[in-house]
Amino acid sequence: MSVLTEIIAGVRIDLDARRSILGQAEIEAAAAAAVPALDAYAALGGHTDPAQRDHTLHVISEVKRKSPSKGALAEIGRPEDLAVAYEAGGASVISVLTEERRFGGSLADFDAVRAAVKIPLLRKDFTVEEYQIYEARAHGADLVLLIVAALDDAQLRGFLDLTHALGMNALVETHTAEEIARAVAVGAKIIGVNVRNLKTLDVDRGNFARLASGIPSDVVIIAESGVRGVADVEHYAQHGADAILVGEALVKDNDPRTAVKNFGAAGTAAKPQRAG
Ligand SMILES: O=P(O)(O)OC[C@@H](O)[C@@H](O)c1c[nH]c2ccccc12
User: Fold this and answer.
1) Could you point out which of 4, 23, 130, 187 has its C-alpha 20 to 30 Å from the C-alpha of 15?
2) C-alpha 64 – ligand 1 centre gap (Å)
3) Whole-structure pTM over 0.90, yes or no?
4) Does the annotation count 62 as an active-site position?
């Protein structure tokens, strides 16, 4: 069984437990009652007219306690404090892992961050049922994660449509050219290229440059994983990233505010600027 399959098995068990407490009708009502979602596509520099795109390399900063590949990453006593530092450093979006078993995340972490910052939030989890999308919205999420490798085309399309119907955006995560084609075909507006293969956990940073060139220009392109420092940020920016998604390097830094600021500045300086 691949790592992804194992993770999803646990996610389904935990999801069923939450649903037995708060049923489908209740979660839909809670989603409808939530404060409207922020426009994460715009916050990441997206624009339907590519000529209007900004020249910034946006940073999505992640609250990540542990991972299947690295184990424990950092003691995050107060996720809200980390999030406030990210926001102060200029993060465009904050990602909060809510998967519990392998990443040590929770919806409680998400709620603490939501209460502390004003910028758009990504509820980072393994979405396999509509319930989780309503749940994300009910907790004030602006973005959800849809991992193409975990979904068939009908699910991908249905989940993306529901996400949009609830006023949110989806970060549609890919790892191969075929997955990018599937993401584009269903109308994804924010596509992430994860350089970590979720089936094997291998990281191949060169994969980003190879794949990003095939993504249409009205789509926001996110380079996910593997940022160790400024050189990796510059590499992704030079090869077409509009944003980077960074976890480990930020949670391990003693000064996450400055780290976000430095990554954003270095990436923006390295990003190819349009003529004129
Ligand atoms: O810690 P890193 O290497 O900076 O990676 C962050 C992020 O890309 C990674 O956490 C991630 C990418 N896709 C995911 C899907 C599920 C859980 C986690 C992830």
Assistant:
1) 187
2) 8
3) yes
4) yes
